[in-house]
Amino acid sequence: MRTISDYSQRLLPAAEEPGIDPDTPDNGRPPTPRRTEPVLVVVGTAGGVGTSTLAALLACQAARSGGQAGVTLVGADPDRGGLDMILGLEEEPGLRWQDIRAPLGVVDATTLAARLPAADGVRVLAGRPWSGHAPRPWEQDAVFDALMGLPGPLVIDAGQGTRLPDRLAHFLGHSCGQAQDGAVTVLLLTAPCLAALAAGRMLAEDCRRALPGARIATVVSRIGPVVPGWSSPAPDDGQIADALGVPVIGRYRRFPRLTDQIEAGVGLWQVPRGLLRLCDRLVRRAAACPAGGA
Question: Phi first, then psi: what are they for 280, rounded to 5°?
Fold first, then answer.
């Protein structure tokens, strides 16, 4: 009779692909590694406010100011695509979420890092939902395990909504600590309108519950269509901070030249100086890894 280990050998990917570590017991994944390097999570209160673009800009800025380990940029939702396109890597070979298979729920971190498309010190794991099926739940767990063990800063595009994705919150809590030793900074990207601020309040409360050791701050976005609930006049930074219960540390607006570059497929090769200054300030804030809330 074949054992489960015998069967697993038939499911293993090629040696150069991330997947099962054959030396790992098949009675469960190894514990999630505790992370000591900075994790920067960008999450929007609504779609269209520039969450993915800001996450990519922060990853590039962290790579410019970081060491040799590089930066890993991750789209937390496998069913959302386009993160690699922002960096001009859409046509580059390498793994996307839909390419990952880990039947026994273990992914080798070193191999994963080597197979991701990269440019200028930034590795990116993006979704490509039109090219296949998303990894199964235990495979997504294995990828998060591997990502938490990678060297260098980790920047996560957490999408949008009124709460963090469940799997992301779980792994951040376990690898970065539920106490005051966490290395996580959460940036809430919100539009200055009533609907977005209401969503942002719920999102901030969810982040505090899930990651009590994290620093949480707000970036105000002037990107996106005009929606019902825009205030007239728009609330200032103090009013937004009071509404969300977290400080405002920057404002983010649309730069048409940058949008044209992304749509042309050339990535972020010429970023406006004002936006570079904002990203540098946000990255330095995350690198400080302060404990405990905003």
Answer: -60, -40
Q: What token pair was written down for 233?
A: 């006049």
DSSP H or E segment with residue 221: strand 215-221
Q: 218, 217, 242, 221: which is closest to 230 by C-alpha?
A: 221
Q: What does the block give as tokens for 18?
A: 């991330």
Provide the pLDDT for residue 15: 38
Contacts of 123 (CB under 8 A, 6+ apart): 70, 71, 72, 73, 113, 116, 117
pTM, two decimals, is 0.82
Domain spans of the chain, in order of start: 31-287
pLDDT tens, 80-135? 888 999 999 999 999 999 999 888 888 999 999 999 999 889 999 999 988 888 88
The residue assigned the tokens 């590694």 is: 33
Alpha helices in 235-288 (DSSP H): 237-244, 256-264, 273-287
Which strand (E) or helix (H) includes residue 86? helix 83-86
**C-alpha angle 235-212-36 in degrees, rounded to nearest 5:** 110
Question: Per-residue pLDDT averaged across 203-226, rounded?
Answer: 85
Contacts of 2 (CB under 8 A, 6+ apart): none
pLDDT at 149: 83
Higher local confidence (pLDDT), 69 or 19: 69
Q: Provide CATH code, domain 31-287.
A: 3.40.50.300
Structure tokens at 242: 């009071």
Q: Do 74 and 113 touch, CB atoms closer than 8 A?
A: no
| Alpha-carbon gap, residue 281 to 249, rounded angstroms | 9
